Amino acid sequence: MKGSELFVVIVGCGRLGCHVASQLSRAGHGVVVIDCDEDAFNQLAPEFSGFRVEGDATELAILRQAKTDRADLVIATTSDDNVNLMVAQVARTVFLVPRVLARVFEPRREGIYRRLGIETVCPTSLAAGLFLKTILGDAVGDVA
Amino acid sequence: MKILIVGGGKALYFLCRTFLAKGHEVTVINRDPGECVRIARALRVTVVRGDGTDPAILEQAGAYAAETVVALTPNDQDNLAICQVCRVQYDVPRAVALALDPDNAAVFQKLGVEAFSITPVIATLIEQRTQLDDITNLIPAGEGKVNITELVLPPAAPVIDKPLREVSLPPDSLIAVVLREGAALVPRGNTFLRAGDRIVLISLPANHGETIKAITGDTL
Questions:
Q1: Which of A36, A80, A89, A124 to mutate to test the interface with B (most CBs of B within 10 A)?
Q2: Which of A53, A79, B121, B213 has its CB surrounded by the most CB atoms within 10 Å?
Q3: In chain B, which residues have their Cβ closer than 8 Å to the Cβ of A108?
């Protein structure tokens, strides 16, 4: 394997998953995308050269099929917080993936999962922070 | 005991009924307004409508005071989330999750959540029930790791008419009880088994077939 090339498993091929998958593939990384809806894969960039796995990522067999055990990074981007959080924990604990990121919409949940040691990205908190910063200027402190 | 159950359907209904009959205090969380009304009318339980994976809803349902939480929704990811929120946020002493994907039962345990799966239990029951007609009753215990079988000894059984100490059974199997002429007796080394005795047998799924063969002479 070439030095900086990563093998990334992306769960959820919606707007976010699709965008990240296409960009990583374009940058030369190995990518597998998982989604339970076959049509979701149509949104991938035409030059996407990774693999597509159709199935429910909360099923252990599907993560195995996506070769999650060999992943350097797993990104959980589905629209269901609980799917993302479960996939993130399974990837880390069962498949021993070195780095795992989960999207979580509900800020109330973000705190709990941080306590469980999962790295989360909360679009709600991020957007709220940006909005408040735009409206109130830099005066605003910790918005999340 | 204060029990909080998240889920719906008949499984939830009958589970609530069983817990109530034993004197437990039950709270139910369900997403569907119609079902909440039906549950509240049919059972003496507190019903909270909402997403049981949402910490705010769990708090409203009194999760901080619950002694046991049971997550019975049809989604494994939700059952895991419910139990983790209850353990981490509300220090619930015991949280049990249903794992629909049998693989997830082991996964949940690894993530520190107690889990059970129904599929392997039913599959084992069906396989074993359909194999031998003399077996009148078979109960998997210990999450399917132990079999308790009730069967009638046929006249050709190799174990009859000699003391039990001379009967050789596979390791990890045991004749626990003999039912004869309406009485139950726990057999000892000097007990003679007779044709027509109804015995209760303890075995493991791995040696079940071998044990049945040693006792009845039949091959499964």
A1: A89
A2: A53
A3: 54-56
Q: Which residues of B touch A109 (CB under 8 A)?
A: 53-55, 81, 85
**Record: contact A106-B77, CB cut-off 8 A:** no
- Residues B109 and B22 reside in one and the same domain: yes
- Report the alpha-carbon distance of residue B109 to residue B116 in Å, rounded: 9
**Chain B residues with beta carbon closer than 8 angstroms to that of A81:** 53, 81
| CB atoms A93 and B54 under 8 Å | no
Test A58 with B76 for CB contact under 8 angstroms: yes
Instruction: Report residue B31 as tokens.
Output: 């997403």
Greater confidence (B16 vs A114) lies with B16
Instruction: Decide if A112 and B89 are in contact by the 8 Å CB cutoff.
Output: yes
pTM greater than the 0.90 cutoff: no
Chain A residues touching B76 at Cβ < 8 A: 58, 86
Domain count, chain B: 2
Domain of residue B82 covers 2-117
Taking residue A46's Cβ as centre, other Cβ atoms within 10 Å add up to 5
Between CA B18 and CA A118 the distance in angstroms is 38
Query: What are the pLDDT digits (tens) for B39-78?
Result: 999 999 999 999 999 999 999 999 999 999 999 999 999 9
Instruction: Report the CATH number that the domain containing residue B67 is assigned in CATH.
Output: 3.40.50.720
CATH code of the domain covering residue B181? 3.30.70.1450
Average per-residue pLDDT for chain B: 89
Interface contact flag, B103 A85, Cβ < 8 Å? no
Measured distance CA(B157)–CA(B79) in Å, rounded = 47
Q: What are the tens digits of pLDDT across the range B100-116?
A: 999 999 999 999 999 99
Q: State which fold the A7-139 domain adopts.
A: Rossmann fold (3.40.50)
Residues B158, B103 share a domain: no
Chain A environment of B117 (Cβ under 8 Å): none
Strand order in the sheet with B114-116: B46-49, B25-30, B2-6, B68-71, B94-98, B114-116
